[in-house]
Design a protein that fits this description.
With about 325 residues, this protein is α/β, with parallel strands linked by helices. The protein has twelve helices and 14 strands. Helix 9 crosses helix 10.
């Protein structure tokens, strides 16, 4: 069936909530209002207020309650309205959710999913447009997921809820309305596996979230210039499927990582390190990262667009890497 990313996430939540009564939802305005992007719309009518719970505006409490429920045998899915608000709950995420299994002598898992929207595109300014996944990639015990289309949003959400580890599930705000086919009977992707979205021969391009969409569009334009991109959707940033990327690099000889996080300390650094250490001899050129500038994102839409990797920028930098001239 044809649906949106928002609709696919809702179908995933319905499925696991019907299958497992330990699964419940918590977050700000997720019941009757349906959440800021309508992902939980209508779920309270089927599952009731005991399983679709509106919370106060207190992120540290939302996540803390989720952790308590998870270690008590439940499988909570909590929503943080904006990823920019994750720092309020970071003590709970980093020092409790991520470490509880280790501190319990590997006896008590924490099957918690933290959903949140992130990213640029709506010119919401410095405090509601951040891409902070790299902050949490440094934390042992956490998994970090970022889908780019309805099929993967559906499968990865189900996998995240079934996982016994705490998972941060990043949903790009500009992809909620993105449409695509959804086969609810298809095999579910494993967390930690990438997918080749477009085969190619000249350059391996790795991305996820909205940047994956930009790379696919860039690939169409570069194809007209005689450049063939192999586009890899990382899907999961932690664990990171370096084997899939290096396998592609062995064929193309080049790697470009496109990410929306800032240039310094961005999520793509881990992939570049893996390429250098695992498939260095296959590289014809040094690995390249295309990332956002090291500055808070402005609220002016034109300035915001200039700060993050655009399709034009991806096309231009890859063409330059290969010594290709763009048409005027």
């Amino acid at each position: 069936m044809m649906t949106t990313v928002s609709g696919a996430l809702r179908e995933a939540l319905k499925r696991v909530m019907r299958e497992d009564d330990r699964v419940f939802l918590m977050g700000e305005d997720i019941a009757e209002y349906g959440g800021i992007y309508n992902v939980t719309r209508g779920l309270v009518n089927e599952f009731g207020r005991e399983r679709v719970i509106d919370t106060p505006m207190a992120e540290i409490t939302i996540v803390g309650a989720g952790i308590g429920a998870a270690v008590s045998g439940m499988r909570p899915v909590v929503e943080i309205m904006y990823a920019d608000f994750l720092p309020i709950a970071t003590d709970q995420i980093v020092n409790n959710a991520a470490k509880f299994y280790f501190l319990s002598g590997q006896k008590t898992p924490v099957p918690l999913v933290v959903r949140t929207n992130f990213g640029s595109g709506k010119a919401e300014g410095a405090l509601q447009s951040q891409t902070p996944e790299a902050w949490y990639m440094n934390v042992p015990g956490l998994k970090v997921v970022m889908p780019s289309d309805p099929q993967d949003a559906y499968g990865l959400m189900i996998g995240a809820i079934r996982d016994n580890n705490p998972v941060l599930f990043f949903e790009h705000k500009m992809l909620y309305a993105a449409k695509g086919d959804l086969d609810t009977g298809a095999a579910l992707p494993e967390l930690g596996t990438a997918a080749t979205k477009r085969p190619g021969r000249d350059v391996t391009v790795a991305a996820c979230g909205l940047m994956l969409r930009n790379c696919l569009e860039a690939a169409e334009r570069l194809d007209k210039m005689g450049v063939s991109l192999e586009v890899i959707d990382l899907r999961t940033l932690k664990p990171l499927d370096t084997a899939a990327v290096c396998g592609s690099v062995k064929r193309t000889g080049r790697l470009v990582v496109v990410e929306e996080s800032p240039q310094t300390g961005g999520s793509g650094l881990q992939l570049v390190e893996a390429a250098v250490s695992e498939c260095f001899r296959d590289l014809k050129t040094p690995p390249k990262r295309i990332a956002s500038i090291d500055a808070p994102l402005p609220a002016a839409s034109s300035l915001e667009a200039a700060a993050v990797p655009s399709v034009d920028r991806v096309v231009g930098e890859i063409a330059s890497l290969l010594g290709k001239k763009q048409s005027p």
